[in-house]
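User: Let's play a game. I give you a shape written as tokens, and you guess the letters that built it. Ready? Here's round one.
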């Protein structure tokens, strides 16, 4: 991966999931001793953010659909 794309890895949930998988296979976490808590916490927040976005967009679509 080019170095210019390195900041994107902190946003992508795939890197946190892969870190959890690697810890499960025996390698140390990329984020130190609190790595698993950070990984699971980020994945939960990322999922909750998308769930909230889905609720908001669904409410807007329902209002348009049944407007009259």
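Assistant: Ready! My guess for every position:
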């Amino acid at each position: 991966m080019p170095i210019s794309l390195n900041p994107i890895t902190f946003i992508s949930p795939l890197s946190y999931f892969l870190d959890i998988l690697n810890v499960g296979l025996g390698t140390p976490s990329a984020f130190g001793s609190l790595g698993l808590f950070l990984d699971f916490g980020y994945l939960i927040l990322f999922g909750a953010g998308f769930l909230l976005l889905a609720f908001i967009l669904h409410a807007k679509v329902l209002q348009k659909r049944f407007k009259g």
